[in-house]
Protein: MutS domain V
Organism: Anaerobranca gottschalkii DSM 13577
Amino acid sequence: MFSLFYSILFKTKNEYERERFRNVPECFKDLNLHKIFEVILKDKEEFELEGLFYTPLQDEETIIYRQEIMADLEDDDFRKVITSFSKTIYKLNKIMEKIDRQLISIKSYENNYLTCGRMLDCADVYCREIYNLLEILKGKKFYSQGLNAFKEYIGEYIKSDKFQELKNHVLQLRKDLSSVEYCMFIKGGTIRIRKYQGEIDYSKKILDCFEKFRQGKVKDYRKKLDEEPVAAHVENGVLNILADLYKDIFADLRSFCEKHRKFLDHTIIRFAVDIQFYLSWLEYVQRLKKVGLPFHYPKFSKGNDAIFVRDTFDLALAYLIGEKTITNDFILNPQERVIVVTGPNQGGKTTFARAIGQIHYLASLGLSVPGREGRLPISDQILTHFNREEDLSTLQGKLQDDLVRLKDILKKATERSIIIINEIFASTTLSDAIILGRNMLKDISVLGSFAVIVTFIEELATNNYEIVSMVGVVDKNDPTQRTYKFVRKPPDGLAYALHIAKKYNLTYEDICRRLKNES
């Protein structure tokens, strides 16, 4: 009896068959997640992984199931084995789809002994791949439930009557076909074939004659020919004649194809495709790990646990700038629900907010996330409000557009939602922005959602016990230099605009002096 293993992505068949999203989630552009997944999906285009990356999970059990598998696959040597195995199985499946169509075709140039031979080759490779993988799996101890279940499945599959019959039939056919010996006479456009009758093998004599000139290993200048024959009709003709000379062997080859046409195991094919979800992610983050950026598998909050991450960063930005990436911490203690981010312009506030949104989304997929350690909530959705160009077709001003979009967010949000809002109400007066901002925070408080608010309105970072103020830090010796670090502290009321103006000689006095000199 086979183990209950069905998928390396989900614990049960029902979960696996649940509908997945096919469209890009709304939060992707605001959080720059589209830049991350565009790279991954382009490299793995043939596997059609979009639905897996576009569909976050909401149950901790499945997320942890994936995290444990991902952690096991971080072993470089083992990952190379799985990468090679999955590529081979995927390629075999594609080849067999074509062969299967040819074997049921009524066209002789498709359904022939050449096609049968290709299927035998595929079956031979398949059996060897399965055996080789099992030998490697036997020597591995896995932490994950998923890979242990797959290991058990492979062990049981190899012992099954179906696989043993396939393997034995392949071995017997290989042995029988290797006994086929014949002589070919070519004259003009005519080929004659008969059984080998003990004629001298001149090829061996020629090799023996030139043996004394052999100088050991040298560069091989032979050109590798295409796998697909360029004269298939000639090969088919030769095979048809041989089939008359060796009727039993070629009849057995036909029988093999009829009996084992669907020899590929569906669970193993599914594994070869689904494992790309993990391999593609590990391949993507490997580049960042090499420059010392940390990744981890977050734990998940229960009840009144604090929410935190140490040394996190914007993954999309880090992929571009590498080791120059600045990391940050954040923590929300029990009862704290909102982070209000303030600080100088161009100080990294939006990047910090994006980083928080990214890690929540990535964690919901069961992936490793930027940071050294962390504990996060499992959200039902991530809702974002970032600045957009005005849509003239709606005839709405910027403020009205902000309010309409905010209303839609608050309508969708639940206590399990993550809300990321960046520089809202920038188009109105400060006094109005303060009123609107405080009303927004009240609504978020009623919902109980976790929120990150990037704003120029420092009055929103009040002493409310649910609100945490985080402020962008500048270099203490040179206030014009941003550190892109954020700390928990009340707003300092400093925009540092005057320091920047001084740096570039743009203060009121500088401009007046320049105008006076020019006049």
About this structure: Residues 391 and 397 are 9 Å apart (CA to CA).
